[in-house]
Amino acid sequence: MAITFTEFKDQAKEILNIDLDGYKLDRVERRTKSLMRRYQVDDFDQCINLIKNDGEFKDAYLNHFTINTSEFFRNPENFEFLKSDVFPKLFETNEKVKIWSAPCSNGSEPYTLAIILKEMGIRPSKFEIYATDLDHTILDTARRAEYKENSLKNVSDKLLKRYFKESSDGKTYALSSEIKRMVNFEQKDLINARFKNDWDLILSRNFFIYLTKDMKDELIKKFTSVLNPGGYFFLGNTEYIFSPEKYGLDKIFQSFYKYEGLS
Ligand SMILES: C[S@@+](CC[C@H](N)C(=O)[O-])C[C@H]1O[C@@H](n2cnc3c(N)ncnc32)[C@H](O)[C@@H]1O
Q1: Do residues 106 and 139 touch, judged by C-beta distance below 8 A?
Q2: CA 202 → CA 75, 97, 137, 249, distances in Å?
Q3: Across the strands, what pairs with 97?
Q4: What is the pLDDT of residues 68-103, one digit of tens each?
């Protein structure tokens, strides 16, 4: 008899070294089945064997499971707020502002921050942008920093001209090396890894939506434990923290929370 989804998930957890129990399992099952259909894989036995023995399928599984959708200035009104309110306050009170984009996907998010800071006239020695993701293939894309139009729809013509170079076939836009140099990328599994501390702004956008309630709770605690008091936590547009005061957070605007510290 073929193995069940639960048995598949437990074996996949070991092989992939990812805590699949932290994710909404009905979604993991749906994503697994849709990939199986695409590769004409009949059952979970065959699927686990391919994950074990076929590197290409394993990468495809990881790729399919981790949704990498991202774009520059995603939900622009939040970046307006960042520029007009959060950054001025942070740079007024800190010698150096430390920012972490977690997870960063294809780099659109941390590079958006770098562009905003450049436009604000802030010198790179005054900030640090660290960006991490679980998926090493998307990190290669982020480091390459060549984007198609769909990632750039919120970038104004002025900024597009200033920071991107269109390829000769007009299909991609390469980001300027000056902006690329402002972001440091690293592979990191947010569920298993230990976090570095001392952050003034943490962005964790469009990630909690994939997690169970317990895992979300655990991660908010982990993130706030490394945020400096007075620092900010920036979530995705559809993500909320219920009872933010429980974590020492105060909601200040749409997806922004300020960390006041835990008494
Ligand atoms: C939808 S993207 C969000 C990207 C960006 N923050 C944004 O809002 O545009 C979600 C990202 O989460 C990453 N991811 C999924 N599980 C992860 C984990 N356990 N640790 C780190 N990154 C993870 C995926 O690889 C994917 O790039």
Answers
A1: no
A2: 17, 11, 23, 13
A3: 127
A4: 899 999 999 999 999 999 999 999 999 999 999 999
The atom of ligand 1 lying closest to the CA of 102 is 6
Ligand 1 centroid–CA 94 distance in Å is: 28
| pLDDT tens for each residue of 204-246 | 999 999 999 999 999 999 999 999 999 999 999 999 999 999 9
- Ligand 1 pocket test target in 72, 137, 207, 215 with most atoms within 8 Å of CB: 207
- Number of residues that this document lists for the chain: 263
Interacting residues of 204 by C-beta distance below 8 A, sequence separation 6+ = 102, 103, 190, 219, 223, 233, 234, 235
Question: Where do the domains of the chain lie, and which CATH numbers do they carry?
Answer: 5-65 (no CATH), 76-259 (3.40.50.150)
